[in-house]
Structure formats: C-alpha cells, structure tokens
UniProtKB/TrEMBL annotation:
Stated name of the protein: Ppx-GppA phosphatase protein (Exopolyphosphatase)
InterPro entries to which the protein is assigned, alphabetical: ATPase_NBD (IPR043129), GppA/Ppx_hydrolase (IPR050273), Ppx_GppA_C (IPR048950), Ppx_GppA_N (IPR003695), PyroPPase_GppA_Ppx (IPR030673)
Pfam families hit by this protein: Ppx-GppA, Ppx-GppA_III
Domain Ppx/GppA phosphatase C-terminal: 301-469
Keyword presence, Disulfide bond: no
Domain called Ppx/GppA phosphatase N-terminal: residue spans: 35-227
PANTHER family named in the record: EXOPOLYPHOSPHATASE, RETROGRADE REGULATION PROTEIN 2
Molecular-function GO terms, alphabetical: pyrophosphatase activity
The organism's place on the tree of life at top rank: Eukaryota
Length: 520
C-alpha cells in the first residue's frame, strides 16, 4: 500500500491570530476544519511590555517599544512562513496600549511597512465581544446568558452575551499592568477602592443588574492564574504517582469565597474559567467567515476533550498531542480512501465511521495527560484520568472506554488477541479498537521520535509500490531511509510491523531529507 504520511496540516486548514497586548504579544496558529473543531499546532508569546510607556497620560509608544514590537513580530512572521499560513487567514489585532496611544496610527503604519502585517486596532467593546467569542469555543455556554470578564494588561473587558451575540459590552482601564503602575504594593486598599469607583461610575454595575446573567466566565492569563492557584489548593493531599483524585473532581471554576469577594459587587457567586480568550475569539470569527456561522457554536463533545487535555497538559505537550491528532486524522481518511478504491485487503471503511475518527482524535489529544504524575507509567494514568474524571460530555460510556483504552495502549506492547483489555469491551468494538490502536501507535511514534514539523503531503496509490512517503520540513536535518534500515528508529519499525499485521498490508516508510531552520 502506498500512502503519503501527513507531516503537518495543509496550509488551507491553518488559521492564525496575533494579539498585540499591553504586556505581551501572542501568536496562535491552529488547525481547523469545517465542522468547527480547531486546536493549536503552534504558539509563541513575546514580553514586549508596551505598558512601560503608559505611566503618563497622554502617552506615545516609544522608539524602544517599537523596536521590541518589530523584533517580536518578525519572529511571528518567520513562524507563519514556516507553516505557510495564508495571509488572508491571519488576523493581527491590537488592544489597550495601542488603542490609547497618541501615535497608534504611526505605530500600525510602521508595522505594515517593516513586517507587512495589517494591524487592526480594536475598540474596547469589540475587544470584549471577541473575548466572548473565544469563551464560546471552550465552554458550553452558547445557550446561556453569560457575563464574561477578561482582565488584560491595560484594560478589563466586560460583556454579556447569548448565542454568540454581545448584548452589552464595555472596556474599563483596569488592566493589571496599568493598576500596578498606579498603585504601590502597600496601597492595595486604595487600589480596591479605585476599582470599585471606576466600575460604579462607568455604569457597569447598573448594566449588569439590568441585563442579569445565568453564568459568569473569566478569561485571560490573569484569571487563569487565580484559578490555578485555587485549583492547586485542592491537590495538596495527592499521593505521588497516584491518580489525581483531587484534581479530577475539580472543574474549571472557583467560588465567591475563593475569589475573596472581588466580584461581589457584580453579584457573582461562582465563576467558570475559560482557557480561551481574545486570540481564540479572533480565530473563531475568521472561521465563521470561511466556513459559516455555525462554527461559533462548535461541537460540545470536542470542547470537552480540549478542556480535559488543556487541564492536564503543558502547552508543549498539548501541541505535540495536537500534531499527533492531525496525523491520525489524515492516515484514517487516506486508508479509508484506499479501501474505497478496492486496494486494501481489510474492509476498513465498512467497520469505522466518523464517530470512531473523533474517538481516535480525542485519544491522541489525551494520550499524554498522565504525564502530570510523572513519566513512568503515564499511559496508565492517562487511562485512569479519562475513565474517572467524568468530564467527556456527550460521549457514551462505550466511547469513553474506547478513548481511554487507546490512550492506555498507545505505547508498550501492542495488545494481541486475548489481551485482558478486550474483556472490557464488546466484541463489535474489539475489531475497531485494533484498527485505531495501530493508527495511534504509529502516529505517536512518528511524532515523538521524528519531531514532526512539516508542510507537504503528496499521495499516490499503487499496490506494487508499497511505500509510505514523507516529505518533511523540521528544525533539524531529517534522517534518511538508511536510518530506518540500520535500526536507529526501532520504535517506528516495530509499529510498522504492528500496522502491517492489523491491516494485512505491506507498509514501509521513506523519509526524504530536507532542512529548515526555525529559531524560537
């Protein structure tokens, strides 16, 4: 069987957002599909700190800050070029520090001239709306009247929305950078009084009372930092290497008591926390324009997988898992196409469907969450977390079990017929499990041992030419086919043998050498 192994997302499926914030600049690149699912494949955060220029009012962005900004954006442009992200699918937005600067137009023109990026300076209300759209991609609150609070470096955005529409939104100059510059650490009481005064005088408190809300959501790094501090307070009794029972029972939320009454004046009893915010909202709106408005209410099942993955994974592991999921999807679809051409000895397409593909992708995203307890036996911990946490909403018990078993068996010995794991699942699921297990194992092996960072996919179908070809671009020089022959990649060779056995088809790898440097 000849099939091109995908090395990365095709350019047409990639979207990017750039957030020029008061404290830092952030680049986010995601892989997306028309169903509304997207997850990160790369990200970078640069501490430009435009807020240094905002001590006095009015202010201008200094030459030094402009220099740091251009340096950061040049790095971003290099990464965008590396992934071949289309310019019309990249959106660059600026927030409070640029919005309030006297020379914001000159700053944007400079970026356009030096980097070639169009900068969209967001109004405060627009920033609030986009943060709300980002929240919708992470939490199942589309049908609820939601109050979203997004604390940034230069401002804090408040928005009340429902079903993707912002009913009320405002931006107040209450960012953590600006407040830190205004008040010394021993002036906390004065700062709190100032915050209460600004919120009352702006009419925010009255507006919130008028509209009401069913649920409160916090987003941005500041809110997440508060939540994580509370979160880890629930895990102090965890036994080393054990399943994180305390954390597993902990959802993305904290109560009024945990907030220390910070939001009492808005009547918030409990606040959900969104890992997504402005950057993801920008992505969501771009997707809505390309694929249709239904993206704003993306698949709830998939969101629950993302929440679980991001709860336990570091950003680096999350990106690795996302790359693995992308590879798995392409292999799944290409083998199915090969079967449709009548060239595969196993009736693969007849036994697997779109829900099986979704379970495979979910398992790829979750296979490494057990690392939170340490490397040893992490695949077993991944299984226990998936089975015990109960946060995969919308999945049947059978599907959750399939996802957990795939995560459990993505490494170590390939489960043979008669393995104990088969006693846990119905017979009709066992065959599907073997197919999916063979795919996830080869994907993980390729991602881990070859550091997949590539662009191009070319497919061909020839029963005689049994090669799985890869054309790859990555951080270092790639191994050639001789590296496979001389046994320096035993894990991949072993997984190829497993794959051949399951699919009853010869399957080999040709790795084409190429190089590309990426410095970040």
């Amino acid at each position: 069987m000849a099939i091109t192994l995908p090395t990365s997302s095709t350019a047409s499926s990639l979207f990017a957002s750039i957030d020029l914030g008061t404290n830092s600049f952030k680049l986010l690149i995601v892989r997306a599909d028309p169903s509304g699912k997207f997850f990160p494949i790369d990200h970078l955060k640069e501490p430009v700190v435009l807020g240094r220029d905002t001590v006095t009012t009015p202010y201008s962005i200094s030459a030094q800050s402009q220099s740091r900004a251009l340096e950061a954006l040049q790095k971003f442009q290099t990464i965008l070029n590396y992934h071949k992200v289309n310019r019309n699918r990249t959106r660059c937005v600026a927030t409070a520090a640029v919005r309030e600067a006297k020379n914001k137009r000159e700053f944007a023109d400079c970026i356009k001239e030096k980097i070639g990026m169009e900068v969209e300076v967001l109004a405060g209300e627009e920033e609030a709306r986009l943060a709300y759209l980002g929240v919708l991609q992470f939490l199942p609150v589309y049908d609820k009247l939601a109050l979203t609070v997004d604390i940034g470096g230069g401002s804090t955005e408040f928005v009340i929305g429902k079903e993707g529409k912002a009913i009320f939104g405002t931006s107040l100059k209450l960012g953590h950078v600006s407040l830190a510059q205004m008040f010394h650490i021993d002036k906390i009481s004065e700062m709190r009084e100032y915050i209460r005064s600004v919120m009352h005088e702006s009419g925010l408190v009255q507006k919130v009372k008028e509209h009401g809300f069913e649920i409160a959501v916090g987003s941005s790094g500041t809110i997440r930092a508060i939540e994580k501090a509370v979160f880890h307070g629930y895990a102090r009794d965890i036994v080393d290497k054990a399943v994180l029972v305390g954390e597993c029972n902990r959802d993305w939320a904290f109560t009024r008591g945990e907030l220390r009454n910070i939001f009492m004046m808005l009547g918030i009893e409990e606040m959900e926390v969104s890992e997504y915010a402005l950057g993801e909202g920008v992505i969501a709106e771009t997707l809505a324009k390309v694929y249709g408005g239904c993206v704003l209410n993306a698949n709830a099942r998939w969101r629950s997988v993302l929440r679980l993955a991001m709860r336990f994974n570091s950003k680096k592991r999350m990106i690795s898992a996302a790359q693995c999921a992308g590879i798995a999807k392409e292999i799944f679809e290409r083998i199915r196409k090969f079967n449709e051409l009548g060239k595969n000895k196993v009736e693969f397409a007849a036994s697997l469907n779109e829900k099986d593909l979704e379970c495979l992708e979910a398992a790829c995203l979750l296979h490494n969450i057990g690392f939170v307890t340490g490397k040893k036996g992490y695949h077993k911990q991944s299984y226990h977390i998936i089975m015990k946490i109960g946060h995969l909403h919308g999945y049947s018990a059978e599907e959750v079990q399939l996802i957990a078993l795939l995560a459990r068996h993505h490494r170590k010995k390939f489960p043979k017929s008669g393995h104990a794991c088969f006693s846990e699942i119905p017979k009709e699921v066992q065959r599907r499990f073997r197919y999916l297990c063979a795919i996830i194992r080869i994907c993980v092996a390729l991602q881990q041992y070859q550091s997949l960072k590539s662009q191009e996919m070319d497919s061909s179908y020839s029963q005689e030419d049994s090669n799985l070809e890869r054309s790859e671009v990555q951080d270092r020089k790639l191994p050639t086919i001789t590296h496979l022959v001389d046994g320096r990649m035993p894990e991949l060779s072993k997984e190829l043998e497993n794959f051949n056995t399951v699919f009853q088809q010869e399957f080999s790898v040709v790795v084409n050498s190429s190089t590309s440097e990426r410095n970040h």
